[in-house]
Every structure is written in C-alpha cells, then in structure tokens.
Amino acid sequence: MAGGSATPGRSVTSRALAVLDAFSSSAPRLSLSEIAERSGTPLSTAHRLLGELTDWGALQRRADGRYEIGRKLWDLGLLAPVQLELRQVAAPFLLDVHTATRDTVHLAVREGRAALYVERISGRVSVPVVSQVGSRLPLHATGVGKVLLASAPDDVVEGVLRSLTRATRHTVVDPARLRRELAEVRRRGYARTAEEMSLGTLSVAVPVRAERGGAPVVVAALGIVVPSHRRDLTRLVPVLEVAARGIGRGVSRAQHFH
After folding, report:
1. Which of 16, 197, 222, 238 has its CA 20 to 30 A from that of 67?
2. What is the pTM of this model?
3. What Å distances lie between residue 80 and 32, 74, 88, 132, CA to CA?
4. In this predicted model, what pLDDT tens digit does every residue of 194-242 receive, in sequence order?
C-alpha cells in the first residue's frame, strides 16, 4: 500500500477511520501534519487518505489548508436511530416549550460518561450557552446530564464520581455532594444547576421515559437554560414534564412499529 503504515497490518479502512478519529471537539480543525501525528499514520498515507475523504465529502479543506469534518458525515450522523427517531418525535414538543418560555431548550441522551445533545432550540433573546447539537458535555455539570446520571448504571455513576472536572468555579466536584444531589434528583424528579457549565446561566431538566420491555426507562433528558437572574426555575418544571411525557409516549409508540 502506498505510503506504508505506522502499524503493520492495518487495513485501509482502519487507517481512514484513524484519520477521522483524529478530530475532536477540542481539535475540530487540523493540519496534515497534525492529522498524521494524531492518527499514527505516515505523512504520505495521510495525504492520500485526506484527498480521498475530501473528494467523498467526509472532510473539507479550508482556505488556510487545514481540514475539518465535512457535511456528508453530518448528514449520515443524523440518520443514527438515537438522532433520527428521537429528534423527529421530540421536535414539536421542544418547539412548544420554547414558544411558551422563549428560553433555550435542550434534548440530550447519555453516551458513556457524557451528555450528547441531540436537539436544541434557542431564540434571539435566549441566554448564550456552550452546547450545540452534537455536543458532548459532562454529565455532572449540566442539568440534562444530572438527570441522565441519576438514572445511569452504578458503574457509570462511580466512574463519573472518580473523575469530576471543573468547568466553572461553581461546578460540583465533591463526590459526596454530587451523590446527595443525584439522590435528590431521583426523589423530586428534576435536576437544577447554577452556573456549573457556563457562568451567567441556570438550568432545569427532567427525564424522558419510554417503555422498554414493558417497563419505563429514562431514554433522554429535556432541559431549559435561563439567565442566572431568573428566579422562576421550578415553575418551568411542569412545562418540561408535560413535554417529556409527550416525547416518551411518542418514542414508545415508534418502537412498537419496529
């Protein structure tokens, strides 16, 4: 194979996937040499693969010569069941919540130890937030994340408690305190955060439950982010709960047809 490989026996497919895997939320734009180094691929091989991936649309080359993820991968990602089905079912309910509150509304699912944001609606008057569709944010520092963590398996919870990172000075990084918070989330049915992911914001979130094997399971979390001067956070909980029940029923019905 032209250019060889830093790891003998790697297939063309594995090398191409390694090139794509070089990109991350902290490194969304990379140069040829950075991609070669991060993927463990010889420069000449990386150059050839980048050409093929760019031609196909998986990557695109910027004017400054660096590469970023292309639209084709985004389009394919939207076909993933967690995205497609959940987003289609949830979209009208998120719109209802946003219309009623004019605040930023989020829908997220748990992916490992992160909250994956699958849908977001915000308006011109909404508070600026760090999350975007496709963002992966810490479970312990976000409202939707705390809801998802409260229903996660014990091994996931313990893993998160062992690796708490600070996003702002208000992020809860004490395992005992977070454990108490999660128990409170389970008891009252919603989570709150105050400037834990980004300063100047508060959030509240509720679980979305759907039928799985005859029992209700938390499949997502629905949340609102508001400016930190607002004091009506708990009044938003019933609005979220109505929407969450609607999404849950829709997801349960959709699964019955599969």
Report:
1. 197
2. 0.69
3. 29, 10, 12, 17
4. 999 988 889 999 999 988 777 788 999 999 998 888 877 889 999 999 9
| Nearest-angstrom CA–CA distance, 67 and 55 | 12
Over residues 132-187, the pLDDT tens digits come to 676 788 999 999 999 999 999 998 999 999 989 999 899 999 999 999 999 999 99
Whole-number CA gyration radius for the chain = 21
Nearest partner of 140 among 163, 118, 106, 119, judged by Cα: 163
Q: In whole angstroms, what is the distance from residue 238 CA to residue 161 CA?
A: 30
Taking the C-alpha atoms of residue 160 and residue 71, their distance in angstroms, rounded to an integer, is 32
Tokens representing 120 are: 């977001």
In the chain, where does DSSP find H-type helix? 12-21, 32-39, 43-56, 71-77, 81-101, 143-150, 154-161, 175-188, 237-256
Q: How does DSSP assign 79-108, residue by residue?
A: TSHHHHHHHHHHHHHHHHHHHHH-SEEEEE
Q: Calculate the dihedral angle through the C-alpha atoms of 103, 109, 110, 115, rounding to the nearest 10 degrees.
A: -30
Distance CA 7, CA 4 (A): 9
Which of helix, strand or coil describes residue 235?
Answer: helix
Shortest CA distance to 147 belongs to which of 119, 173, 184? Answer: 184
Give how far the C-alpha of residue 223 lies from the chain's centroid of Cα atoms, to the nearest Å. 13
Neighbouring C-beta atoms of residue 164, cutoff 10 Å:
17
